[in-house]
Amino acid sequence: MIARMSHDPARASAITDLMRAGRETSRLSMVFRYAIAERLGLAVSDLECLDYLADIGSATAGQIAERTSLTTGAVTSMLRRLQQAGYVTAERDPADRRRVVVTIRPERIADLERPYERFAERAERLVEGYSAEEVRLLVRHHDRLQAMYLAELDHLRDGDTE
């Protein structure tokens, strides 16, 4: 881990605590996702695909491959599994028959949301205790983290070693 020391010891300690808390939250989030995927009888990549589709509605197989960092062959296998399990439909794009448009089946959304319900309720209660200013700070922080993750993913995909 790379750490830049602040000249203020209290700030440096707070930053160290924040970084540790972030790593632990990330680890627990991953463990939680694996547990939910297992409960639903899915692979984690399948769950990530369904989560993505739940957010945006429909996507092409290529967009799913880009979002999940899976090869097109792996996405094809994943989509086949999700279709067989009744989670998605995959139709040829009428504007470009080479593309497949994947859509989550609305009647299956409740099945996907159910394992998250208790956590979502607890998270809502947690956030209720924050001021609007604190919530906006958290949103800015998460937006910046997402941008950093996307940049690092691009860096890793491009094979950069620095």
UniProtKB/TrEMBL annotation:
Give the matching Pfam families.
Answer: MarR_2
This chain belongs to the protein called MarR family transcriptional regulator
What PROSITE patterns does the annotation carry?
HTH_MARR_2 (PS50995)
Which organism's genome codes for this protein? Micromonospora chalcea
InterPro entries (alphabetical): HTH_MarR-typ, MarR/SlyA-like, WH-like_DNA-bd_sf, WH_DNA-bd_sf
Gene3D superfamilies referenced in this protein's UniProt entry, alphabetically: Winged helix-like DNA-binding domain superfamily/Winged helix DNA-binding domain
Q: Which SMART domains is this protein grouped with?
A: HTH_MARR (SM00347)
The organism's place on the tree of life at top rank = Bacteria
Q: Which residues form the HTH marR-type domain?
A: 11-147
